[in-house]
UniProtKB/TrEMBL annotation:
<feature type="signal peptide">
    <location>
        <begin position="1"/>
        <end position="18"/>
    </location>
</feature>
<keyword id="KW-1015">Disulfide bond</keyword>
<feature type="disulfide bond">
    <location>
        <begin position="244"/>
        <end position="258"/>
    </location>
</feature>
<dbReference type="InterPro" id="IPR000560">
    <property type="entry name" value="His_Pase_clade-2"/>
</dbReference>
<dbReference type="InterPro" id="IPR029033">
    <property type="entry name" value="His_PPase_superfam"/>
</dbReference>
<dbReference type="InterPro" id="IPR016274">
    <property type="entry name" value="Histidine_acid_Pase_euk"/>
</dbReference>
<keyword id="KW-0964">Secreted</keyword>
<feature type="disulfide bond">
    <location>
        <begin position="198"/>
        <end position="438"/>
    </location>
</feature>
<feature type="active site" description="Nucleophile">
    <location>
        <position position="73"/>
    </location>
</feature>
<keyword id="KW-0325">Glycoprotein</keyword>
<feature type="disulfide bond">
    <location>
        <begin position="407"/>
        <end position="415"/>
    </location>
</feature>
<protein>
    <recommendedName>
        <fullName>Phytase A</fullName>
    </recommendedName>
</protein>
<feature type="disulfide bond">
    <location>
        <begin position="62"/>
        <end position="387"/>
    </location>
</feature>
<comment type="subunit">
    <text>Monomer.</text>
</comment>
<dbReference type="GO" id="GO:0016158">
    <property type="term" value="F:inositol hexakisphosphate 3-phosphatase activity"/>
</dbReference>
<dbReference type="Pfam" id="PF00328">
    <property type="entry name" value="His_Phos_2"/>
</dbReference>
<dbReference type="GO" id="GO:0005576">
    <property type="term" value="C:extracellular region"/>
</dbReference>
Length: 440
């Protein structure tokens, strides 16, 4: 069996301790062996996961009582649409008679051979390692009668990520606690782990097109001069840049396309991702944050031990059944997409900006950075914490503790549970009428 097939066929992984150990051992090699360039942190939503900060222990006198994890699927191949656009741009470069820049000479023998949509081996390893880390960090919250409750949105790469997480969690426990993927939510139905329900929501095309017209023309001109007759467009340039992260994560070696662009040019690429997420399903999209309301209301139910109260995208049949939405677990792990995690952050109130992102002029002090918010295998953990008889909430995004100023967070990022619940008025009010705007 190939490594990729082995990593993705998690049911086989779970069939024996030997196989499970082999996955963990190989996953570590796969991840640690990938020597990424520094500019990989400028690849926006295509950046491989890395901790935004070192995980901070709780203050003395505090103990974990519950954790709710939501995680993006691991690194993947391009989508089918992106793959076609990338191949079209590559064909233009390869269709010329000669190159005036030797940096393009590798294209004389280059063959595009990436798959579409599914996880790559590195993506499977990322989720496996995240599961192992979750056990190491939160093992006090699990026992034989209370294993992690795991859900996934019904997309193959998301389901595979969830199964690799459970495998990593299980093997880190010495196969004492082996959770299963408890629930797959159909993306054609009500689904709090996918962003497809708000049919009237807009997109980020206007803003990303504006920025493309600012940062890409000089790059396009340079490439066209290096490949006379290629007649690349600015859109082609973006697609060629995106091939760098996709080929790197797929082949676990730095793509030769990465070296065609400077760090300054990669900063422009990064801002395309920032704008895409901000105006796609984030604060810059009128009907962006409302798409995170359902998940927030599920989160509040888990934190308080009370039934879900929501009139937006929750599946009320599933959420009213203890078998499909239990309220007595110490660890919950949900697997989703970047375009759903962004509205969840926004509905909660994380990463608010002093001013909307400018489509023509990046603010260097912005904290809205797609690479910090939703890299491949991004994760948010909402911890319920007990400190000297009181209950608190702490939120970490890619291990970085969030200040939670909207609910009075202290220097440790802790705010009282009641204050956190009160701060989520937008979700508790079902989006203040925004949900109804999603439909004609």
């Amino acid at each position: 069996m190939s490594l990729l097939a082995f990593l993705l066929t998690v049911q086989l992984v779970l069939s024996s301790k030997a196989a499970s150990f082999q996955l963990g051992r190989q996953a570590s090699v796969v991840t640690d062996g990938l020597d990424l360039p520094a500019n990989s942190k400028l690849w926006a939503q295509y950046s491989p996961w890395y901790p935004a900060q070192e995980y901070a222990a709780l203050p003395d006198g505090c103990a974990l009582k519950q954790v709710n994890i939501i995680q993006r699927h691991g690194a993947r191949f391009p989508t089918s649409g992106a793959s076609k656009r990338i191949q079209s741009a590559v064909a233009k470069l390869q269709g010329v008679d000669n190159y005036t820049d030797p940096a393009l000479d590798f294209l004389k023998t280059f063959q595009y051979d990436l798959g579409t949509d599914d996880l790559v081996a590195l993506g499977a390893a990322q989720s496996n390692e995240a599961g192992a880390t979750s056990f190491e960090r939160y093992s006090a919250l699990v026992n034989e009668s209370s294993l992690p409750f795991v859900r996934a949105s019904g997309s193959t790469r998301v389901e595979d990520s969830a199964r690799n997480w459970t495998a990593g969690f299980g093997e880190a426990s010495g196969n004492v606690y082996v959770p299963k993927l408890s629930l797959i939510i159909d993306e054609s139905l009500n689904d709090t782990l996918d962003d497809s329900m708000c049919t009237n929501a807009g997109n980020s095309d206007a803003q990303t097109d504006q920025w493309l017209s600012v940062f890409a023309p000089n790059i396009t001109s340079r490439l066209n001069a290096a490949a006379p007759g290629a007649n690349l467009t600015d859109t082609d340039t973006y697609n060629l840049m995106s091939l760098c992260p996709f080929e790197t994560v797929a082949k676990e070696q730095v793509s030769e396309f990465c070296g065609l662009f400077s760090d300054e040019e990669w900063s422009g690429f990064q801002y395309m991702g920032d704008l895409d997420k901000y105006y796609g399903t984030g604060y810059g999209q009128e009907l962006g944050p409302v798409q995170g309301v359902g998940y927030i209301n599920e989160l509040l139910a888990r934190l308080t031990g009370e039934p879900v109260q929501d009139q937006t995208q929750t599946n009320r049949t599933l959420d009213s059944d203890p078998a499909t939405f239990p309220l007595n677990r110490g660890i919950y792990a949900d697997f989703s997409h970047d375009n759903e995690m962004i509205p969840i952050y926004s509905a909660m109130g994380l990463f608010k900006q002093a001013a909307p992102l400018d489509p023509t002029d990046p603010d260097p002090s912005r904290t809205w950075l797609a690479t910090h918010l939703v890299p491949f295998s991004a994760r948010m953990a909402v911890e319920k914490v007990g400190c000297e008889g009181k209950e608190y909430v702490r939120v970490l995004v890619n291990d970085a503790v969030q200040p939670l100023e909207f609910c009075g967070g202290d220097e440790n990022g802790l705010c009282e549970l009641g204050a956190f619940v009160e701060s989520q008025a937008y979700a508790r009010n079902n989006g203040d009428g925004d949900w109804e705007k999603c439909f004609d």
